[in-house]
């Protein structure tokens, strides 16, 4: 370092310490504040606590019912059996068919949405003129605003019939139409979040590449994309979390047949589709089938939470990595 | 010096020979600008600038923020044309050849006229990856490691890195990053280095290191330095241009310009008076 002070905006070497965010009205002058002011502070805290209470209530309900389920069905059976027939004469509770269906459709949707979304983001950020940018960005917002039930209907009544021209044997409910349509549904998430990741790359990095005599393609592949990689991965993770939790499209497009299949032309039942169907009321409270619902919900929750947390961690760490800026 | 001095430039066409003419007379200027104007979307950013940039020296461009310093700098390696709506008129002769001829390849221009920016943005990866970026882009076939050692030494970074260029770029301090940016620019072996406020985010120590590094590049390189740091400009350059509202107000030997400016606008700027 040779006596040189690393100087960054975040760690000023001396002077007044930075105020932690959120502490603006929390100083030692509290005592001198009026009753009204203090009551207002408590009221705000109560409102903020509601979100935490709701999350805790959901987690506790899920956990307790799931525990009751596992008291009757061993976790080993739950995770190894290959059939999900909770209302059969001899019910079987193998979650794998549901989990595999969710994984297949989520992965298929990511395969559709990731390249399309990333290339769209690159086009918008680096190649489009303001007019094209305006139109396409608006289109993405419209895409994001379409209710999922409409997407599901489109999958069932338009996409599957169109696919029948390619594969005449395709079932009315099938995995591939769900993949395509869920992929389109999460496309705006991938495109818009990837674009923010690209926007966070300093323009001077692009200028530096050009000033070094590099072609735009090289700057993009060797400079910009590595710099934005973490943000792009976060965009994908958040989109995948949405796809995994998606219910309406997969129920309408892929149906509700719990079976372990790798054929994209056959119907499937995802974790969410099962929960939606079973919670419609035909599982009386307290029965094993009712508790199975919570066990499945816990699996789904664990999956989406993990992917979501990964996305949040990647997005949060974006500032620390990637393009190195002062 | 064949550029026409016909611009509406305020001062008579300057020929910055601060330097005693001890250099051989054959040392023609690196750049000769004639009536150079740049417009962005019809708005003038630079009007009628004519000047010569002497070879092997540091030329400072000073002036208030938004005065056109950066535009002038970026005109010298055709970076302005990357901004939509930019239009450049007039003449920029680089080593006697017109820079803005249609058949001139801007990529080749940028390899010969390197540039370092205010924000020391490095590519992700190691210091070596950064330094190798330019040579790799131009299909360099030689020994990249030897080249990296050479330019990092020239930029005063070789010792800082403990002779290990595989250090992650992200681990460096702001001043070190800027020196890596300079090493990265040197790796394509430019004849001219354009520095756009390279020290504005640095403290005095880091600035001093950049300054001595830039001096060590002379006289093989010509350096054009746009800066808001008047003391840096006064200390380091031999010729200074004062630019204001897109016009070249005054251009001459640094010492003269700073101690005895001939234009009232230069004087008010240097003394911090609000006009």
Task: Summarize the structure in short.
Chain A is mainly α. Chain A has helices at residues 35-72, 75-80, 96-127, 130-145, 148-164, 175-199, 203-211, 216-245, 248-254, 271-278, 288-316; strands at residues 84-85, 92-93. Chain A has a two-stranded antiparallel sheet.
Write the layout of secondary structure elements.
The complex is a heterodimer of chains A (326) and B (275).
Chain A: H1 35-72, H2 75-80, E1 84-85, E2 92-93, H3 96-127, H4 130-145, H5 148-164, H6 175-199, H7 203-211, H8 216-245, H9 248-254, H10 271-278, H11 288-316
Antiparallel strand pairs in A: 1-2
Chain B: E1 31-40, E2 43-53, E3 58-62, H1 69-75, E4 86-94, E5 97-98, H2 106-112, E6 113-116, H3 127-137, H4 144-154, H5 174-186, E7 192-196, H6 204-216, E8 222-226, H7 230-236, E9 239-244, E10 247-253, H8 254-259, H9 264-271
Parallel strand pairs in B: 3-8, 3-9, 6-7, 7-8
Antiparallel strand pairs in B: 1-2, 1-4, 4-5, 9-10
Helix pairs in contact in B: 3-4, 3-5, 4-5, 5-6
What tags apply to this protein structure?
heterodimer; A: 326 residues; mainly alpha; MetI-like fold; two-stranded antiparallel sheet; disordered N terminus; disordered C terminus; B: 275 residues; alpha/beta; Rossmann fold; six-stranded mixed beta sheet; four-stranded antiparallel beta sheet; 9 helices; 30% helix
Unreliable stretches of chain A (pLDDT < 50, length at least 5) are 1-13, 318-326
List the chains of the largest interface with their residue counts.
Answer: A-B, 34 and 43 residues
Strand tally of chain A? 2
Large-scale geometry of chain A = globular
Shape of chain B: globular
Determine and state the CATH class of chain A.
Mainly Alpha
Please give the share of residues in helix of chain A.
55-70%
- What is Rg of chain A? 25 Å
């Amino acid at each position: 370092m040779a006596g040189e002070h690393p100087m960054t905006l975040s760690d000023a070497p001396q002077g007044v310490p930075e105020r932690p965010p959120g502490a603006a009205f929390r100083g030692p002058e509290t005592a001198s504040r009026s009753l009204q002011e203090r009551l207002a502070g408590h009221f705000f805290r109560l409102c903020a606590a509601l979100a935490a209470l709701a999350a805790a209530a959901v987690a506790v309900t899920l956990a307790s019912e799931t525990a009751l389920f596992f008291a009757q069905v061993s976790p080993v059976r739950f995770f190894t059996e290959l059939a999900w027939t909770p209302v059969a004469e001899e019910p079987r509770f193998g979650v794998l068919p549901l989990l595999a269906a969710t994984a297949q459709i989520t992965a298929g949707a990511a395969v559709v949405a990731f390249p399309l979304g990333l290339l769209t983001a690159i086009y918008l950020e680096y190649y489009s003129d303001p007019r094209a940018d305006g139109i396409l960005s608006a289109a993405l917002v419209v895409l994001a605003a379409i209710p999922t039930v409409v997407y599901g209907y489109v999958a069932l009544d338009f996409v599957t019939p169109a696919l029948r021209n390619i594969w005449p044997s395709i079932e009315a409910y099938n995995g591939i139409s769900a993949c395509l349509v869920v992929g389109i549904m999460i496309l705006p998430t991938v495109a818009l979040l990837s674009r923010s990741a690209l926007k966070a790359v300093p323009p001077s990095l692009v200028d530096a590449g050009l000033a070094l005599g590099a072609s735009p393609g090289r700057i993009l592949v060797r400079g910009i994309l590595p710099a934005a990689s973490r943000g792009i991965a976060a965009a994908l993770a958040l989109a995948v979390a949405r796809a995994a939790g998606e219910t309406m499209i997969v129920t309408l497009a892929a149906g509700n047949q719990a079976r372990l299949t790798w054929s994209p032309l056959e119907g499937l039942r995802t974790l969410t589709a099962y929960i939606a169907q079973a919670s419609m009321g035909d599982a009386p409270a307290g029965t094993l089938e009712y508790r199975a619902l919570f066990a499945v919900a816990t699996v789904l929750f664990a999956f989406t939470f993990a992917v979501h947390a990964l996305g949040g961690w990647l997005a949060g760490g974006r500032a620390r990595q990637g393009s190195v800026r002062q | 010096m064949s550029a026409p001095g016909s611009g509406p430039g305020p001062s008579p066409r300057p020929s910055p020979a601060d330097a005693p003419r001890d250099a051989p007379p054959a040392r023609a200027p690196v750049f000769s600008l004639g009536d150079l104007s740049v417009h962005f979307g019809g708005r003038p950013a630079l009007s009628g600038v004519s000047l010569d940039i002497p070879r092997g020296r540091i030329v400072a461009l000073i002036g208030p923020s938004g005065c056109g310093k950066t535009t002038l700098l970026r005109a010298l390696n055709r970076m302005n044309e990357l901004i939509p709506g930019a239009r450049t008129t007039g003449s920029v002769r680089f080593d006697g050849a017109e820079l803005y001829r249609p058949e001139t390849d801007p990529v080749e221009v940028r390899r010969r006229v390197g540039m370092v920016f205010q924000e020391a943005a490095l590519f992700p990866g190691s210091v070596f990856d950064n330094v190798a970026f330019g040579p790799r882009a131009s299909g360099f076939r030689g020994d990249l490691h030897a080249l990296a050692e050479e330019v990092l030494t020239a930029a005063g970074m070789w010792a800082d890195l403990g002779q290990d260029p595989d250090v992650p770029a992200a681990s460096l301090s702001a001043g070190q990053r800027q020196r890596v940016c300079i090493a990265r620019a040197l790796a394509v072996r430019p004849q001219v280095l354009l520095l756009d406020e390279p020290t504005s985010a640095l403290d005095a120590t880091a600035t001093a290191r950049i300054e001595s590094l830039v001096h060590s590049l002379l006289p093989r390189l010509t350096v054009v330095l746009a800066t808001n740091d008047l003391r840096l400009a006064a200390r380091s350059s031999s010729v200074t241009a004062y630019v204001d509202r897109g016009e070249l107000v005054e251009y001459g030997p640094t010492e003269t310009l700073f101690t005895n400016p001939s234009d009232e606008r230069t004087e008010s700027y240097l003394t911090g008076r609000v006009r």
